Amino acid sequence: MLAPFRVRGFRFQWAGDLAMSWAVEMEVLILGWYVLIESGSVSLLAVFGALHYMGSLISPIFGVAGDRIGYAKLFWMTRAFYASLASILLVLSWQALLSPMAVLAIAFLAGMVRPSDMVMRYAVIAMILPSQQLMGGLGIARITSDSARIAGALAGASTVAAFGMTWAYVAIVSLYCLSFILTRQILPTASSQQSPATTHSAKQLGAAISDLGTAFRYVWDKPVLLGAMWLAFLVNLLAFPFFLGLLPYVAKHQYGLGQEGLSTLAASFALGGLIGSVALGSNKLPIGAARAMLLAALLWFLIDCIFAFNRELLLGIALLTLAGLSSSLCLTPLAAVMLRGTEIAYRGRVMGMRMLAIWGLPIGLLLAGPLIERWGFEAIAFIYSAIGLALTLAMCLYWREDLWSSQALSNRPA
Q1: What is the DSSP string of 202-240?
Q2: Are 123 and 347 in contact (CB under 8 A)?
Q3: Residue 342: DSSP 8-state
Q4: Which residues contact residue 90 at a Cβ distance below 8 angstroms, ignoring those fewer than 6 apart?
Q5: Helix, strand, or coil here: 164?
Q6: What single DSSP character describes residue 186?
Q7: Could you give the domains of the chain?
Q8: 407: Cβ contacts below 8 Å, ≥ 6 apart
Q9: Residues 33/36/42/44 CA torsion (nearest 10 deg)
Q10: How far apart are CA 52 and CA 331, in angstroms?
Q11: Around Cβ 22, how many Cβ atoms within 10 Å?
Q12: Per-residue confidence in pLDDT tens, the chain, 414 aa
């Protein structure tokens, strides 16, 4: 499980990702609660959540840029951007000028880049580590994210309660800066392993657009990649909205909790993800990566159907933990399926295409907000989950030869 840490670049990336993930989780929880309390609107909360993922539309452009200028260089540039935006919020809070509209504006700017951070994270891991360590490396990356999500959720609420938002943002800015410094250290290693696509220089915009078109065709012509893309879109559209965007609403209106209670719910979901990541970190998946992602998605939607009607806090915590476990067992194998099924020269562009699937999350959030205000949380959460369950079953049938069969390449050991 610890084999990836023998690689110098991976050690620095892991530490940088830890600081980055901690800062993000603190920030999202603090600002989400702030928007809900100050505005009192679930629709505005949904808009706030959706804005964090608007950049998924331009993620393929980041993938093309990573193939051309180097993944690691683009990686640390995004970290510097986050630190700059957090510094603006720090100043606004310090001067008592913070408002929901200012938070939404910063969320929009961060959201133009944040989905592409995951593109670079996975692409750099794929470049740094040998193929046989890829699942383990991705599992460790998920462990980093999930453990930081637990710590960030708990630290965010406690820091605001004890010291106020300004000092909480001092900690957040410091973590972003630390992430930037650590990420800079992986540049020599990652840039020395550039893909064949970086050996020629194409400075014209037309060449970049051509690369993007090539990536679309590449994914479309490979059933394994296309199926994984559709599953990623499906869980973002129908499963994630209730855990990544609307959890403050669930905490306040379903369970009657405050900000510290919200942190407990967020940490529960992250704990489940951490358990799944630890299991995947062993680099052993006896049922195959593609089959694992489909089974985990089915379990995830089934749990969501129950979660929709639950109002008991302890059961809610248990369901959130199971949902987090299912999400980890779905998305980490999904990333491995896509990376293994992609030639090195196209990895940046294909993972950029993968992040287009995140566009399902803002769509799901923007639809859910007004629908919940009209028909209530229980009805909309159940409808989302039931549709997701039915469509995942349909995917298992449609791509059974490429994704479900035990003989499929996507289910064979690395």
Answers
A1: --SHHHHHHHHHHHHHHHHT-HHHHHHHHHHHHHHHHTT
A2: yes
A3: S
A4: 166, 169, 170, 172, 173
A5: coil
A6: T
A7: 3-191+207-411 (1.20.1250.20)
A8: none
A9: -110
A10: 19
A11: 27
A12: 667 777 777 888 888 888 988 899 899 999 999 999 999 999 999 999 999 888 777 766 666 666 666 666 777 788 899 999 999 999 999 999 999 999 999 999 998 888 777 667 777 777 777 766 776 777 777 777 778 888 888 888 788 888 889 999 999 999 999 999 998 887 544 444 444 444 444 454 465 567 667 778 888 888 888 999 999 999 999 999 999 889 999 999 999 999 889 999 999 999 998 888 788 766 566 678 888 899 999 999 999 999 999 999 999 999 999 999 999 999 988 988 888 878 777 776 777 677 778 889 999 999 999 999 999 999 999 999 999 999 999 999 998 888 877 766 767 765
Structure tokens at 315: 């059961």
H-assigned helices in 240-288: 247-249, 259-281
